[in-house]
Design goal:
The chain is built from nine helices and 17 strands. With 364 residues, it is of the alpha+beta class. α1 packs antiparallel against α7 and α7 packs antiparallel against α9. It is elongated, with a radius of gyration of 34 Å.
Length: 364
């Protein structure tokens, strides 16, 4: 009875904590639906309720786009805007902060340098990678576009993804207010990011391949959506993994606690035909006597000298301590099964799986 109650407590407490986490996520999802729905309505796009992140989709300024939040390598939430291009890009392009670690390493180790545009302020702040280099110079030839990029004080990354341009910026456009019980969204900030992404798409189309016109870049946007949707599969897997590991650990812990020690005596110790040593010990539990082999598994082909040495090391009548399962006294053994440190292992399991759940819901 005591073991059952302990098992219920060990499994029940994490389940209650998980329920609390899921309720909190549900509460924040309801808050986000309310405020993000209003922002989406003002922009003329659709808001898709999502458990972990707001997702805006639709057509803005005549372009198909997707706006969502992601967590990049475990850091705080960032905004991702993906805008479809009307033409196949005329080259490869990426714009990133000049001080980004990857740019510094590439410059020092491989001699990689960015494309110079002739704008001292822009060249000093950003690293522009392009193939061919003339493609970047053409896309960023507009002084107004460069000024908009320079005016953005938050670190960001611009890169082409198939027939779409992706803007990833370290700003989630939302804050917690009223002691974190409600969410506030800066609608004008969202609009500015969409405008910036659309301006980049317009500049890219102006330098795109005229023969590569396309009606939609939905395959690229769908691929981004699939990466986000896959986060829910990761969250579900995290919860199932935590439950499964809890079951395994509790089962091992409960089994180890059922074993008791008892005095035993060697009842048989002889060399059987085929040079097979037979050593059997006998013990009594609750008035019943049980026998069990000392060596349950021995390799075949032992020589007579080796078999005789094993038998001589366990003389008839020698006493020893063995262990048995209180639920099955006939099931005995020479060693007590190890009991896992449940007070240390279980919190670690739930902490790891909780972290996986959290980062899965934050996005990929």
């Amino acid at each position: 009875m005591g073991g059952a109650s302990t098992t219920v407590a060990v499994i029940g407490v994490p389940l209650v904590l998980l329920a609390g986490v899921l309720w909190t996520i549900r509460y924040w999802a309801r808050e986000r639906r309310k405020v993000w729905g209003a922002v989406a309505g003002s922009l003329g796009v659709s808001f898709r309720p999502s458990l972990g992140t707001p997702v805006l989709t639709g057509t803005y300024r005549g372009r198909v786009l997707r706006f969502d939040h992601v967590s990049h390598r475990g850091r705080s939430a960032q905004t991702r805007v993906v805008v479809a291009l009307g033409r196949r890009p005329g080259g490869v392009l990426s714009i990133s902060p000049q001080a980004a670690p990857i740019n510094i390493i590439a410059a020092k180790l491989f001699g990689a340098h960015d494309v110079e545009l002739g704008d001292p302020a822009f060249d000093a702040r950003f690293t522009v990678k392009s193939e061919p280099p003339a493609f970047a110079r053409g896309v960023l030839a507009d002084t107004g576009l460069r000024q908009k990029l320079l005016a953005e004080r938050v670190p960001f990354l611009v890169e082409l993804d198939g027939q779409a341009v992706r803007l990833l910026i370290a700003d989630c456009c939302e804050t917690g207010v009223d002691h974190m019980r409600h969410v506030a969204v800066d609608g004008e900030r969202v609009r500015a990011l969409l405008d910036l992404a659309c301006d980049l798409a317009t500049a890219l189309d102006a330098r795109g391949d005229p023969s590569g016109a396309t009606a939609s870049a939905s395959p690229d946007l769908a691929r981004v959506a699939r990466r986000t949707t896959s986060s829910y599969a990761g969250a579900a897997l995290s919860a199932l993994l935590a439950l499964f590991m809890t079951y395994v650990i509790v089962a091992q812990w409960s089994a180890a606690r059922r074993w008791r020690s008892v005095d035993a005596v060697i009842a048989k110790s002889e060399v059987a035909p085929g040079n097979r040593p037979e050593v059997i010990y006998r013990y009594t539990v609750g008035g019943a006597t049980y026998e069990s082999p000392f060596y349950a598994h021995l390799p075949d082909g032992l020589d007579e000298e080796h078999a005789r040495a094993i038998v001589n090391s366990h003389p008839l009548g020698a006493r020893l301590t063995v262990y048995y399962d209180v639920t099955r006294p006939s099931h005995g053994g020479l060693d007590r099964p190890k009991s896992p440190p449940i007070t240390l292992v279980l919190p670690a399991v739930w902490a790891v799986c909780g972290a996986l759940l959290f980062f899965s819901l934050r996005g990929t």
